[in-house]
Design a protein that fits this description.
D-amino Acid Aminotransferase, Chain A, domain 2; D-amino Acid Aminotransferase, Chain A, domain 1; alpha+beta; single chain; 9-stranded mixed beta sheet; 8 helices; 15 strands; 6-stranded antiparallel beta sheet; 2 domains; 32% helix; 292 residues
Length: 292
Amino acid sequence: MGTSVSIDGVLVDPGTASVPVMDRGFLYGDSAFEVTRTYGGQPFALGAHLVRLRRSCERLGIAVGAPDDALRAEIAAALDAAANPESYVRVIVTRGVTEIGLGVGQGQTTRRIVVVLPLPAQPAALYEDGVELATVMTARSLDGTGAAGAKASNYLPNILSLASARARGGYEALSVGAGGEILEGATSNVFIVRDGTVWTPPLELGILEGITRGLVLDAARDEGVEVEQRLFFPHDLYTAAEAFITSSLREVVPVVRADGVVLGDGRPGALTRRLHAAFRRCAEDVLASERG
C-alpha cells in the first residue's frame, strides 16, 4: 500500500512533494478541498464531489483551473500510482501564489493537488457500540460571509472544537450556533430521530452540504421514513430516541451519548442501522451509475 501526490497534473515523490511558501493555501488556508474514499478501487460519488468542489471554489472566488475530465484523469493517475486496495482521496485547489497580502485581485496562479493515502479501516466498535458527541460553542471560519457552506481548508475552528470535545470524552465535536441551535460536527453532519421522524439541520444555517448527508436523506425517503430539515437544540438531542452522524469516510455512525447524557437506551438504534443499510444500497447504485 502506498501514498501518491499529484500537483497540477504531475505525479511527484510523496516524500518531497511541496508547494511554495508563498502559496496562499499555505499562508492563509486560502483553498477549497474535497475528500472521498474508494469502494473496490473506485472513487465514490466523484461527480457529486467535483460539483461541490466547483461550488466551493466559486464561493471563494478561486478558479479551479481544469475541466472535470482533467481532474478525473489526475485522480485516476494518483490512484493507480498508489495501488492501494482501498484509498483515501483528497483534492485541493489553492488560490496559488499572489502578491503578498490579503488582496486577491493580482497574479493568481491556481494550484491543484491530489493526495491519495491507504484507507484505514474504521473500528467495528464505532458501529457496534456507538459514539459520544460533545457540543461546542464556536464561530466557524466562514460564518457570516457569502462563502458560508463552502468546503474551505481553513479548519482551525474545527481543530480547536474537536480538541475541546476530545478533552471531555467526546468522539466528535458538535457545533452550536449563536442562537443555541445545533449546526454540524467538526467533520460530519448530524441527525436525530424523534417520534420516528429524522431531523437534520437545514443548509440555510451555513452547514456543509454533505454528500453522505444527501444520500442518507434520499435513502430515508426511499424507506418511507419521514425527514425534516429543521432547527433543533441540545435539549432535542439529549431527549432523542436515536442520533447518528454521517461522513464520506465513516458512512453512518450511531450516537449513544451527548455531553454525558445517554440517548434512548444507550445502544445504536434500529432506525440508524436500517438507514445505514439503506445508504449502502444507495451507494451501490451510485457506484454502478458512475461505472456507466
